[in-house]
Every structure is written in structure tokens, then in C-alpha cells.
Amino acid sequence: MATLQTASAPPRAIKQHRVLRSLPYLAPAVFLYGIFLLYPMIDSVRLSFFSWSGYATAPQEFVGLKNYRYLLTQDTVFWTALRNSMIWVVLSVAIPMVLSLLMALALNQRIWGRNAFRSIFYIPSVFASITVAAIWRWIYNPTMGVINQAFEAIGLGGLAHEWLGDPRTALYSIFVASVWQGVGFNMVLFLAGLQSVPAELVDAAKVDGAGRWQVFRNVTWPALRPTTIVVVILTIINSLKVYDLVVGMTGGGPAQSSQVLALWSYQQSFSNHNFGAGGAVATVLLILSLCLVVPYLAWSMRGED
């Protein structure tokens, strides 16, 4: 009887019934999500309108937009961090994505040892970021580092450089370590996307005389659209919140040249004991993330439709 009643019910009622029935199973996850993610996010935005040193005994004084005016007019480090974060986003979307796609296309072919190469390229993405920072800090060591030692060995000692100690190269040196760590993860995503490319379409294109570039442009690339959307969104978000590598390799130096928004928010709050300014930087980072991700997602979904 219950089955007959459910079958005769309108689709909207059935959908509402399923939603209500699933709520008890979703409640624990929603509760944890709210406690550990939503509440800190909302409280950080709230603190951006207050002046507070972070001590429990210190009062929280409402100051309105004072923290934002301070960031925009007096805090020169904020503008350096904002510029570096945007440079990181642009480079991350351009370089690692292209490399990971090329690696996925190569390792999707029937070549000797491709499973071993897949594992080798993916392993760095499993390492903790602070471990990657320690590895690359040793690689960049000005006296015993692998890079400078290699230059000395081949007679190009003049190219040896203090990579992390030079304000002109510090940020880009950290970015190279980020590429080494993250390109394997994107490669795996693209490899998964390549498995969904219909083989019959590829074969049909080859029968029609299409070359490799034409097959990629007209068959493979359109089929990779959903994967590309995911990779771009994850790349933008991870680029804006980069923190561990910068802390582990330079701490934002030298002379704040490698400072980024996520690190500056932390330092304002916990090092300078200015939780209002730290919350303001975090809020700007949140707004920036939404301004980059939401329009791209809306555009990509419209193109999908």
C-alpha cells in the first residue's frame, strides 16, 4: 500500500519526502561543517569590523570600516601580498595546467612504464606542503643546493644564485616548488577525463583523415571540458590560499617580497595581534575568491547549456 501511495504521489512530494528522509544522515556532516568552516568564516568577517588584540581579557571595539581603510591607504604590505597572490593565480592557471595536460596526454598513450611514470609524477602531491618546502629549501641552498652545485659542475658558476634570498626571485622560486608538488594531481584529473573521451569518435576522426592536432582540438578538448572546469576552479582556490610553502621557504621575505594574502592575514592576527586587520585581509581574500570563481563557473555552465 505504501508503495502504491508513493507511486501515485506527485514528483515534487516524492522529492520533498526523500530530502526529509536524508536529513538525519546529513545532520552530523552539516554540524561539523558549520562548526569548523562556516562559523570561523563568518566570525572572521565580523572581526574585520572590530579592533581586537586576540586576548580573551581584551575588549572588542567596533570600528566599522577602519580596518579596510587602513589596508587600502596605509598597509603597503597588503598591496604587495595582493599583487603576489594575483601573480600566483595567473601563473598557476597558465603553467601547471598546461604541463599537467601535456603529461596526461603523453601518459595516456601505450608507452613502456607509463604506470610507473604516473606514480612518480603523482607522488609529490601526496607530500605535506611543509615537507615540500624543506626539500626545495635544500635544493635552493646557495652553497650546498643541487641547483647551484649543478651550475658549478658544468662550468656555469656565474649562474649560481641565492634564489630564496633575492627579492626578485624568491616568489618565483617558491612557485617552481608549487608546480613540482601540484602538477601530478592535475595530471591525474586530466587522465580521468581522457578515459571518458569516446574512442569511436577518435577512430572516426582518424578515418576521416584528421591529424593528431585536429583530433585533440575537435574531439579530445571538448570532451575534457568538465574536467577542465574542475581543474581551473581548484587551481584558482588553491592559488589564493597558498600558505604552507611560503611559510616553510621564506616566511614572506626577504623584505616581504614573497608575501601573500593568506600569510599576511595570519601574521596580522597572530604575530601583530591585530585580529581586525587580519580579518579584513581574510575577508578581501574571500571576496577575491568569489569574484574569480563564481563568474568563471557561471560562464562555464552557460557554455555547457
The arrangement of helices and strands along the chain is HHEEHHHHHHHHHHHH
- Number of DSSP helices? 14
Which residues sit in consecutive blocks of at least 5 with pLDDT less than 50? 1-7
Overall body shape: flat
Radius of gyration computed on alpha carbons: 25 Å
DSSP strand count:
2
Helical content (DSSP H or I, runs of 4+): over 70%
**Biggest β-sheet strands, sense, barrel:** 2 strands, antiparallel
Structural class: mainly alpha
On the 0-100 scale, what is the average pLDDT? Answer: 88
Strand order of the largest sheet: 1-2
Q: What proportion strand?
A: under 5%
Report the span from N to C terminus.
Answer: 41 Å
Set down the secondary structure blueprint:
Elements: H1 2-8, H2 11-47, E1 50-51, E2 61-62, H3 66-73, H4 76-107, H5 114-122, H6 129-139, H7 146-153, H8 170-194, H9 199-207, H10 212-223, H11 225-240, H12 244-249, H13 261-271, H14 275-304
Antiparallel strand pairs: 1-2
Helix pairs in contact: 2-14, 3-14, 4-8, 4-11, 6-8, 8-11, 9-10, 11-14, 13-14
Features:
mainly alpha, two-stranded antiparallel ribbon, 72% helix
Structural write-up:
Helix 4 (76-107) packs antiparallel against helix 11 and helix 8 runs antiparallel to helix 11. A two-stranded antiparallel ribbon has the order 1-2. The model is unreliable at 1-7 (pLDDT under 50). The chain is mainly alpha-helical and 305 residues long. It contains 14 helices and 2 strands; from the N terminus they run H-H-E-E-H-H-H-H-H-H-H-H-H-H-H-H. It has helices spanning 2-8, 11-47, 66-73, 76-107, 114-122, 129-139, 146-153, 170-194, 199-207, 212-223, 225-240, 244-249, 261-271, 275-304, and strands spanning 50-51, 61-62. The protein is flat. 26% of the residues are buried.
